[in-house]
Every structure is written in structure tokens, then in C-alpha cells.
Design a protein that fits this description.
The complex is a heterodimer of chains A (249) and B (134).
Chain A lengths: L1 E3 L5 H9 L3 E8 L7 H14 L4 E5 L7 H5 L8 E2 L3 E2 L2 E2 L2 E5 L1 H4 L8 H14 L5 E7 L6 H9 L6 E4 L3 H17 L6 E7 L5 H8 L3 E7 L11 H5 L2 H13 L1
Parallel strand pairs in A: 2-8, 2-9, 3-7, 3-8, 9-10, 10-11
Antiparallel strand pairs in A: 4-5, 6-7
Helix pairs in contact in A: 1-5, 2-10, 5-6
Chain B lengths: L8 H15 L5 E9 L6 H14 L3 E9 L2 E4 L5 E3 L7 H9 L4 H4 L10 E5 L3 E8 L1
Parallel strand pairs in B: 1-2
Antiparallel strand pairs in B: 1-6, 3-4, 3-5
The chains are: A alpha/beta (249), B alpha+beta (134).
Chain lengths: 249, 134
């Protein structure tokens, strides 16, 4: 009789199984806030799905989830359960968020609690077969970002930057971290809210030897489309994000 | 949020099973002791059934020992400690907490000072205490 007396978190043991049929994981990241990660994540998921890919979208901004607002997701009922939580299909995308459970209430959490939420969600969500799992992450280089690097065995970070000196200074730190952990060819940068022909973000990508997928032009009308997937698909931002999606396929 | 009774004990049972498989890869008989925190309100009967079924499908005889742990909360602002048993939740809130225990912060405040900045010091969720095998 063998005995193992060390205690353990069983959730960590099952995360690999939950992600086993997910071909590609694309965490959308930026250490700077307000650069459009959530909108870009949602539009990217929709654009990939429109091109025939099987796509999941995970809102990992645990304390401040808003992807459901972009997609107009119905929070009035819990996701269905079938030996785990089955993410509802919204606009052709399997969408999972802690907002299904926290609603629109505040969810103030300390670091270890955020890690617990990430473990719980990854352990019980049944994604099934996916070509892409797009992950919306919060700003900063905190728990959720570190959890993505730890719990997803393979991932292809998509770093979002705007052509602002503050963003560049911030994203440079993130790229330094990512290039230490992930092969450069799997890291890609997108310039969001582009207003001119500046090469500042393309040059940043070049400096770190990571991919540059292009510019998403500033779209002053896209906020009016939030919550309406058809309107989002008609937006100028969606057209630009679709070109990014084409390059990812 | 809807009030439909939805359970995800099977997913948690799979997690425990995978933990056991990794701990004792060639075992044919195992005994697993699992601590269940009151906050997550896991259904013991469903969890036990699911775990045994999963083990059986792998040809493993499994004895499951479940230990309940009361949930104790402590305010980080004023230091007040209280028991989950002293709190009344509606069915929908209980269901939400069942899926993601940390959302308790969305529905509960310290009864003494009103802060949501409290911690669950005991009795959160599912934890493997011991695996033994032969």
C-alpha cells in the first residue's frame, strides 16, 4: 500500500485535459489599460468564427469582465451543464466569463483569489473541439497574465499596443517578459487605434523579433455598435480585425 | 440569473480522478480523502458517485472519504470573523457561488463594517487531502 500524504489541488490536474482539444490559444494581452483589448478580443473571435474556425472566447479579466457587454451576452441564466460548464454559443463563438456568476456586481479579489477563479474556470469549462481559444486578459502583468503563462501549455500571445509613448514604454516590459517565456515567432503585435502612418509599433515588434500583424484604425463609431454583433460586424474596426484574423489562420 | 439546478460535480470528480491517476499511475485499488469546503456546497452524493464511476471505467476500485469543512470568513479591514452558516443566500446566489466560490465577494459584505475585502480562511472548495493505493 503506497501512501501519498501531500495535499493537492485537483483542479490543476484536469486543466490539461480540458484544453486537450484546443488547437491554438491566443491570449490578447497588453500591460497598458485602455488600448482596446476587450473589443479586439471579441472582434477577433467573431472574425475567426466567420471564417469557419471553431472558436472559444474566455474573458479572463476576472475582477472587471466586460466582454459580455461587447457581445451582448445574456447573463440572466447560468451556462448549461454537461459534466462541466458548457460555454454558451454567441455569434458562433463559445463564450465563457465569470460574469455569468458575478453578474454586474463588483468582484473585488486579492491575488490568490484571482488565481483560484482562473483554476476553477479552467477546470470546469468544457470547450470541446476548438481551432482557437481567444483569451481577453486585464491590463498589467499580474495574476491573470501569469496564470495564462503557467496553465496554458502552448499559447500565441497577441500583444495590443497603441502608438502612444506611454503604451510603448509599458508594452516594452510585457514583450521583454513574453520573449523570455515564449518563442518569438509565436508572439505577435497589433497596433490598435491607429491614426496615422507611424511605424512606432511595427518598429517595436521588429526590435523584439516578434511578428507584426498590422494596424487597426481608430474607429470612432465602434462604441455605438457594442452589444450588437451584427452592428459590430459592419464596423470599420471589424474589417481591420478581420485582416488580422486572416493572418492568424 | 436563472434558478435551474445545475451541477458540475462531474467535472470536479474528473479533476480528483486525474489527480489520483497522476499520483498513483498503476494502482488498481485507491483510497482518496477529499476535503469539501462548505462555501462551494458540492453535492457529496453526486461527487462520490461520479468519482467511483470514473475510477470504475479505468478498472480501479476506489474508496472515497469526504470530509466537510465549515466555511470561516475574516474581514481584512476590521478583522471580524464570522461563519458562512450565519449568512442567508437566495438559491441563485448559492448556485453562482457553487460554480465559482470567489463570487461570494459579489454578494456578501462584512457584517460588522460592510467591507467586501474579506477572505475565506477555511472551507472554500475541493481539496485532496490524501491518496493511498496498492
Amino acid at each position: 500500500m503506497g501512501v501519498m500524504v501531500s495535499q493537492g489541488d485537483p483542479r490543476l490536474a484536469v486543466i490539461g485535459r480540458r484544453l486537450a482539444r484546443v488547437a491554438r490559444v491566443v491570449p490578447v494581452m497588453s500591460s497598458k489599460g485602455g488600448v482596446g483589448k476587450t473589443l479586439l478580443s471579441c472582434l477577433l473571435a467573431l472574425a475567426l468564427s466567420e471564417r469557419g474556425a471553431r472558436v472559444g472566447l474566455l474573458d479572463l479579466d476576472v475582477t472587471n469582465p466586460t466582454a459580455h457587454v461587447v457581445l451582448g451576452a445574456d447573463l440572466s441564466k447560468f451556462p448549461e451543464e454537461d459534466r462541466g460548464v458548457v460555454p454558451p454559443l454567441i455569434g458562433g463563438v463559445k463564450f465563457m466569463s465569470v460574469a455569468y456568476y458575478s453578474g454586474e456586481n463588483p468582484l473585488p479579489l486579492r491575488g490568490w483569489e484571482i488565481d483560484n477563479v482562473v483554476r476553477e474556470v479552467l477546470a470546469v469549462t468544457i470547450w470541446g473541439d476548438l481551432d482557437f481559444l481567444v483569451i481577453d486578459t486585464p491590463p498589467g502583468i499580474g495574476d491573470e497574465v501569469l496564470d495564462v503563462l503557467s496553465y496554458f501549455p502552448k499559447h500565441e500571445p497577441l500583444v495590443v499596443a497603441t502608438p502612444s509613448p506611454l503604451t510603448v514604454a509599458s508594452v516594452r516590459r510585457l514583450l521583454k517578459l513574453l520573449t523570455e517565456a515564449v518563442k518569438g515567432e509565436l508572439i505577435r503585435v497589433v497596433e490598435n487605434m491607429a491614426r496615422d502612418d507611424s511605424d512606432i509599433i511595427a518598429d517595436l515588434a521588429k526590435k523584439f523579433h516578434v511578428g507584426f500583424l498590422g494596424k487597426v484604425r481608430f474607429d470612432e463609431g465602434v462604441d455605438r455598435a457594442v452589444g450588437d454583433i451584427d452592428a459590430l460586424r459592419r464596423s470599420r474596426m471589424y474589417k481591420d480585425v478581420s485582416m488580422i484574423a486572416e493572418k492568424l489562420l | 440569473m436563472g434558478a435551474a439546478r445545475v451541477v458540475h460535480e462531474w467535472a470536479l470528480a474528473e479533476a480528483i480522478a486525474d489527480y489520483v491517476f497522476k499520483s498513483a499511475p498503476s494502482a488498481k485499488r485507491v483510497r482518496v480523502t477529499v476535503r469539501l469546503g462548505e462555501l462551494q456546497a458540492v453535492d457529496e452524493g453526486i461527487l462520490k458517485f461520479a468519482l467511483r464511476e470514473i475510477m470504475k471505467s479505468e478498472g480501479i476500485a476506489c474508496e472515497v472519504v469526504l470530509k466537510r469543512e465549515d466555511c470561516v470568513l475574516k474581514c481584512r479591514r476590521c478583522g471580524h470573523e464570522w461563519l458562512l452558516k450565519e449568512v442567508e443566500f437566495g438559491e441563485e446566489v448559492r448556485e453562482a457561488i457553487h460554480f465559482v466560490p470567489e463570487v461570494v465577494h459579489s454578494y456578501l459584505k462584512c457584517p460588522k463594517c460592510g467591507s467586501r475585502d474579506f477572505e475565506v480562511i477555511k472551507g472554500r472548495g475541493v481539496w485532496v487531502e490524501e491518496v493511498s493505493w496498492e
